[in-house]
Amino acid sequence: MAKKKPDRLDELMEELLKNQTPEEILGDSGALKELKKRFIERALEGELTNHLGYVKHSPDGHGTGNSRNGKTKKRIIGADGELEIEVPRDRNGEFDPQLVKKRQVRLPGFDEKVISLYGRGQTTREIQGHLKEIYGVSVSPALITKVTDAVLEDVQAWQNRPLDAVYPIVYLDAIHLKLRHSGRVTTRAVYLALGINLQGNKELLGLWIGQNEGAKFWLSILTELQTRGVKDILIAAVDGLTGFPEAIASIYPETEVQLCIVHLVRNSLKYVGWKERKAVARDLRTVYTAATAEAAAAALEAFEATWGERFPMVAKPWRTHWDNVVPFFSYPEPIRKAIYTTNAIESLNSQLRKVTRKRGAFPTDDSVRKVLYLALRQASQRWTRPIKDWSTALNYFSIVFEGRVPV
Asked: For the segment 235-273, what is each residue's pLDDT rounded down to a tens digit?
């Protein structure tokens, strides 16, 4: 078998790496950086040749009315640090380079790196320090803000995108962040609507910033979802917010509103002392693990008989919201599991808190939108189906919500 003949690129690489130390190859003034500089300058020379229509020193340029006119030094920032290049000029000032455009100071890859760091929760100052320490690049906070502001167009397009007509499950929740307005730090609610679509996949339908969490603001969000194309929601999983079920019913009257069971459990246990909490939690479990609504009601009676006299408020959350607890007992196990803890939305909230934890207060609403959108974009790449046996769940939805699930 004939030995493979090395190509020209292999030969050049061998020559380049011969007797070179790692520092001489990868360092600040190393061969790779010099190669990048020369490649860019050679490409720009090629662009100018194409613009003028003749190569350097060619007699074809005589009488054309334009010619080369020296070079201008320019400092640009790339993902691997700063680079000083020489950009060729033409005498008439008509040359418009494309590889490194006029007034362009950042190479492709730099913006993506900054945006990635921002999406992981790093503050502007932290990104500034990271770029300086790792790449030796000095950039201003204003430049970082300018780079990340480019994301706002994507946020707006994403927030206004059309949505599916039907979502079998939508989780509605809010997280709270601190924002600075007029020199004062206030707590604001960020509303989230997480849908499970007809393919069984999670899909964040949008995020909204309000003054505080309330049914009135949720009503405006549900109206927006309807305007963006959502015609029906089969099950809305929510916490115990007063007026929430009524807000949903006004826009989606056929939607089953299911309260988060864990939320109700926590509400009950907050009235119980530490010594009895374990025993109360054990007895309360007989209520929400009952096979049917009738069995659950009987278990709640027994639970209240045991603990009601000592802790009068322990059963009240269940009594108050029982109409929105009952649907839970008609669901098959896969759907019960998905709704029981509202795991999907709690997991999402946890991911968002990771990237906002280090920030004392956000300076603007847009800064919140940028950070959360980028965090969501990264988190969604790792999302899995909250209901593993989706085909069984979809069959259930098709039968129980007859005529409401597209075939």
From this structure: 998 876 666 778 888 999 999 988 878 778 888 999 998
Name the residue with higher pLDDT: 234 or 246.
Answer: 234
Q: What is the DSSP string of 368-389?
A: HHHHHHHHHHHHGGG---SSS-
Q: Which CATH number fits domain 164-259+345-407: 3.20.20.140, 3.30.420.10, 3.30.420.40, 3.30.450.40?
A: 3.30.420.10
User: How would you classify the pairing of strands 184-196 and 202-210?
Assistant: antiparallel
Of 179, 212, 176, 175, which Cα lies nearest the Cα of 194? 175
Instruction: Give the start-to-end residue ranges of the domains of the chain.
Output: 31-56+64-151, 164-259+345-407, 261-341
d(CA 237, CA 258): 5
- Alpha-carbon torsion 272, 273, 274, 277, what sign? negative
Of 400 and 348, more confident:
400
Pairing of strands 184-196, 68-78: unpaired
